[in-house]
Design a protein that fits this description.
The protein is α+β, with helices and mostly antiparallel strands and about 240 residues long. It has two domains: about 100 residues; about 80 residues, ACT domain (Alpha-Beta Plaits, 2-Layer Sandwich). Helices cover about 40% and strands about 25% of the residues. The protein has seven helices and eleven strands. Strands 1, 4, 5, 6 and 7 form a five-stranded antiparallel β-sheet that branches. It has a four-stranded antiparallel β-sheet with strand order 9-10-8-11. Helix 5 packs antiparallel against helix 6 and helix 6 runs antiparallel to helix 7.
């Protein structure tokens, strides 16, 4: 029987809440599949896995609930194992590395910070840039299409640079509050996308620091902090080869 894989936890600590269903609804009860000192979190795989909102949310709910009580290496959405023996063999081959990865995320969560440019404070931006003042003067003298395009591009570049400075300030402020940081993929509309590995005891401190910076830099950037999340960005894939989706 094909199995949908949510992630890997420790066999001794992992516990599935009673009645928890995963991707596929009531026909997909979640359970643990032990393999020595570790265990995969699995449910029966549906015939077809698609990234529908309800299935993505079910995947996330399983990870969120299990990560509250034990260290967890989350899998990406849609990871399927062909059967129990092949999944158990895969886990056993890499058990030592997975145990080390589980220790790394023990007592920790992921927080994600995205920073976007804002169009507030344009007058201040123009006053502080000789280039923008010159381009604006050109448009006032000769408001043709090319001049307006050059001004618009320069303004957009200035807004982006201003927001990037706020992102750098966020990294500096959080340096002593987090245990690790990795850049995320480029996100449309954002100048920075950063994931932080945070000790559970520091979650409030991280949130408060970001809130203060967001208030101080409101005219320069918008900061969006999400979490706590399972540690997606700070662990290896729990199984090496997804069979299919």
């Amino acid at each position: 029987m094909r199995l949908y894989v949510y992630g890997v936890t420790t066999a001794a600590e992992g516990a599935v809440p009673a009645g928890l269903s995963g991707v596929g609804g009531a026909s997909a009860p979640v359970r643990l599949l032990p393999a020595g000192p570790i265990a995969a979190v699995v449910s029966p795989a549906p015939a077809l896995v698609r990234a529908r909102r309800r299935d993505v949310m079910a995947h996330q709910e399983v990870l969120t609930r299990l990560s509250r009580t034990a260290p967890l290496l989350p899998a990406t959405f849609g990871l399927i194992a062909e059967d129990e023996p092949s999944l158990r063999a895969s886990l056993e081959r890499d058990a030592e590395a997975k145990l080390a990865a589980l220790e790394r995320v023990r007592g920790r969560a992921e927080m994600n910070l995205k920073v976007a440019a804002v169009e507030r404070g344009l007058a201040e931006l123009v006053r502080g840039s000789e280039k923008l003042r010159r381009l604006r003067a050109e448009v006032e003298r000769n408001p043709d299409y090319t001049a307006r395009i050059r001004l618009g591009e320069a303004v957009a570049d200035g807004l982006r640079q201003r927001a990037e400075l706020v992102a750098e300030e966020a990294r500096r402020l959080l340096f002593d509050l987090v245990e690790d940081a990795v850049p995320g993929p480029e996100a449309d509309g954002y100048v920075a996308n950063i994931s932080f590995l945070v000790d559970l005891g520091q979650l409030d401190a991280v949130s408060e620091a970001v809130e203060r910076l967001a208030a101080e830099a409101a005219s320069h950037a918008e900061l969006r902090l999400t979490g706590p999340l399972p540690c997606y960005s700070f662990c290896a894939q729990p199984t090496p080869q997804p069979v299919g989706v």
